[in-house]
User: Fold this.
Amino acid sequence: MNDALPANAGAAAGPDLQREAPSDEPCAPATADAVAGGKGLEKRLLRQVGQAIGDYSMIADGDRIMVCLSGGKDSHGLLDLLLKLRQRAPVRFDLIAVNLDQKQPGFPAHVLPEYLARLGVPFHIETKDTYSVVKRLIPEGATACSLCSRLRRGILYRVATELGATRIALGHHRDDLLATFFLNLFYGGRIKAMSPKLVSDDGRHVVIRPLVYAREADLARYAQLRAFPIIPCDLCGSQDDLKRREMARMLVQWERDHPGRVKTIFGALSRVDPTHLMDTHLFDFAGLHPTGEAQPGGDVAFDEPPCSDPTEVVRFDSDQD
Ligand code: SF4
Assistant:
């Protein structure tokens, strides 16, 4: 029996291991009209989260989900949406919010406990001074994020074990996935985005990203409408990840110049054809041989030029003479 949350679970509603990118939109309380207008947004986000959970079998009956709450807009949205989804989900699962207080200067330690207590959500605040460790080990001006993330990851995995969590939920969204995809493509030379569901690198936990179908702009708007108590993400004083920012700007510009392009690229991530790439680990090119049988929907081997203008085709053909 498949007891995972079905793909349409959210439709009925008619930490984060990585720092969240700062939003340009302030999270001020919204007006009553804006809240009323936000119902469609909430419905869309719930539908997308339910769809992602169903598509990737993220949650099963009886799961205990540790929601990593950094205090940024995305992790706030994640917790809020999962709480709403749980009320109408056909499977039973528990949520526990976890925040890691890294002892960054000016961290408002009272904000999240007060908020979570008000919501009535079980929570755990883990306090570990990774800030001092990073300051001690990383020279001034050098990028600290890699060490900081590693430390944070190890701590959160340990906490997940201690809390008996069967899933660790992170607040990465569609635009995080795309920025990571292009970072890997442009600077890492590989085709790789972020997994919606994976086994942690210590091999002991299942990590899920229920917001993978959600747009960052929607989450920023939702945070504003819901007036989440946002904790600034620049308390450590580290430099912004400039390359990641560059990717985000590029995607925004593409969308401006070619509306729909970002959505198309995102869709392509779940329609991969390994036979038309060149990775011998993904496809057994060496073992390829004629079967003697026609394959409906198979490759035509000599693709026609990607051109809808027949005159272009004629020109292409005549070029072959
Ligand atoms: S160094 Fe600062 S920005 Fe980088 S991961 Fe740590 S807290 Fe986030």
Remarks:
- The pocket of iron/sulfur cluster is lined by residues 19, 134, 144-145, 148-149, 236, 238 (CB under 6 Å).
- The chain has a mean pLDDT of 85.
- The beta strands are 64-68, 94-101, 123-127, 167-169, 197-199, 206-208.
